[in-house]
Amino acid sequence: MNVQRLTSLLLPLLAPLGLAAQAPECPRGILDVRFCDEDGDLLADVPTDPAELVDPDTLIFSYTPVEDPAVYADVWADFLAHMEEVTGRRVQFFPVDSNAAQLEAMRAGRLHVAGFNTGGVPFAVNVAGFRPFAMMAAEDGSYGYEMEIIVPADSDIQEVADLRGRTLTFTEETSNSGFKAPSAILQGEFGLVVGEDIEPLFSGGHDVSILGVANRDYEAASIANSVKARMIERGVVAADDFRVIYTSETFPTTAYGHVYNLEPELAERVREAFFSYDWEGTPLQEEFSRSGEAQFIEISYEETWAVIRQIDEVTGVNYTAP
Question: What domains lie within the chain, and their CATH numbers?
Fold first, then answer.
């Protein structure tokens, strides 16, 4: 299933009744008709009508479903306790098992603060009113991950050209490293068209793809190497279980932010929680130091996600069209 088809199936399930009739007349670029973008920053503007704002007693937080949600409930527990102190609100971890479920939750008003995966960020921005402001980075401020195509260590696939006529396992259609970037790179750099020269499979997650290659259930897979690094560090897989036959340029990683209509003072306290959090000795540090991350830094969707939007443009992704 291609990304446009996924979007066409997803959006009717998410769109509230009477949405088009209530659409405001305003500049919005490619944002959903519910939103405005008067300042041209590509993000949904915060509503000026207080009646359109949400001010919940309990903030709902979710982390992108790249691995087992149960693992990350514990990883995020200390940070969410910090957010409770800063915001004065209860904060609840909301485990999601797919990018579509996370997107649906924010669009439907059931999710207030989230970390969306790289490829899912433009969908969340344009369809659900996500306003990203932070990303994890190393101590020196560097950030990002690479898409890798991996094969079992003893595979006869030695280089990308050997994928012709073989199967390649992706994660989900909205994933950058798990589908969109490799599809564009394989066609643009190697003349290999997914669905014609390569048979696609979909695992549903980076961890599943990595385990599948390590266990020789998959011939090859495109994955985010940050996920692989954490799994190796935890001993879930070993580095010598597979070989890397392609490494991409560096992409931005998970973006953190809040829904566009969160009450502004509360939204500001949510931001403060991210940038005031002390990582030292925390479960967050223990988990994400495995992929070299040590702090939250401020980001600009317009600038930081430009390369991702370019990939989407090349591959014909349309975020909001039914």
Answer: 3-141+253-314 (3.40.190.10), 145-251 (3.40.190.10)
